[in-house]
Amino acid sequence: MKKSPSGNRIENRLKSELQENILRNICNNSKSDYSSLSQSLGKDRITILQSIKSLIKNAFVVEENISPHHKKSKRIFQPTVKGICYSIAYLDASIDDMIKLFGDQGELAKYREFVTGVSDYRARVEFMRNCAKLMLELGLFDETGKSKVTSGKELFKIGLASSLVSLSSERNFDASKFFKNQSPDALKKILTKSELKEIKNYLTELKGNIDEIMSGLVRQLD
To answer: Residue 125 needs a FRET pair 20 to 30 A away by CA distance; which of 76, 93, 175, 180 works?
Structure first.
């Protein structure tokens, strides 16, 4: 499994808490505008405007007419795929709500059958958050905030593997829940046998590294 080139990583977090609160509000409200944001966040229009400009410039949100065919209609803000990914990764956004916002766009949406098939909700959330973080870390968006992933499977494989690794560190995690119900069948539809084997080899290698670390630690303590 390919490792992420560190040279492609970007600074992930937004510059201010207000920007994050604005993005969170926009993702939760399909008709957010200056007035509703000002009222919800208790900030004046000028302060909201300054933060919104930065969010638009960095392709987290877009401003558009509520009625596309009427230029003088009310202006509202909508999250881009990049903005939605940020909300999933860092703002504790509802995974189910964000999947609905994705619609049929974005790489994460292509794996809806598998994601929604994971019966353990915590595991499903962990998978989505890891994939979203990975997309942000690698800067996998164009200047408009749309996904420019060319290898959706690679993203999926790394997201799945990193999720399993993260979840396995939790004391009460039940690995069997991650693949209950239709999840294994859905996974087989997405990845080939060789790709599944690649994930297995990755986890096996990781386990070997952990075993070596444990052995070294034990030797130091003896």
So the answer is: 76
Looking at residues 26-37, what average pLDDT do you find?
89
Q: Dig out the tokens for 186 from the structure.
A: 């859905």
Q: Give residue 106's pLDDT band: very low, low, confident or very high (50, 70, 90).
A: low
Domains in the chain, start-ordered, CATH in brackets? 12-79 (1.10.10.10), 101-191 (no CATH)
pLDDT above 90: residue 51: yes
Residue 1 pLDDT level (bands cut at 50, 70, 90): very low
Mean pLDDT of the chain: 76
For residues 167 and 192, the answer to whether their CB atoms sit within 8 Å is no
Angle at 204 between CA 198 and CA 205, to 5 degrees: 90
Name the nearest CA neighbour of 74 among 35, 101, 29, 27. 35
Q: In 3D, which of 106, 101, 86 has the Cα closest to residue 24?
A: 86
| Contact residues for 163 (Cβ-Cβ < 8 A; gap 6+) | 123, 126, 127, 130
Q: Tell me the whole-structure pTM to 2 decimals.
A: 0.69
For residue 134, give the nearest of 23, 7, 1, 10 by alpha carbon: 10
CB-CB contact of 176 with 215 (8 Å): no
List, for residues 147-172, the tens digit of each pLDDT value: 877 665 666 666 676 667 776 776 77
Q: CB of 7 within 8 A of CB of 140?
A: no
Fill in the DSSP letter of residue 76: E
